[in-house]
Amino acid sequence: MIKKGKLIEVEDVNLCQSKRIIKVFLRGISLKDCEFGEQTEIITSTGHVVRGIVSKNKYFYDSSKIFGKNVKEILCIK
To answer: Which domain of life is it from (predicted)?
Structure first.
């Protein structure tokens, strides 16, 4: 279980006008408790609230596993 307030990555799938599927991976802070593969909302570093499916392959919710990739404190630097 991923707790509220953890840094996660979600997958947003959209269909464009030419009938192509576009997958967008976004990172942000979880707004509620969730599980892998479940649809949830995040708030990005720019303040946008996005709904998507929690990515199973690229998770960033545990600070011990993200050392050197994407540290939550670095996101606050503008």
So the answer is: Bacteria
Query: Hey, what amino acid is at 51?
Result: R
Q: What is the DSSP letter of 56?
A: S
The answer to whether 13 and 21 are in contact (CB under 8 A) is: yes
DSSP, collapsed to helix, strand or coil, labels residue 60 as coil
**Please, what CATH class does the domain formed by 7-75 belong to?**
mainly beta
pLDDT digits (tens, 9 = 90+) for 26-59: 988 999 999 988 999 999 988 999 999 998 765 5
Strands (E), 3-78: 7-15, 21-30, 39-43, 49-54
> For the chain, which residues make up each domain, given as ranges?
7-75
> How does DSSP classify residue 7?
E
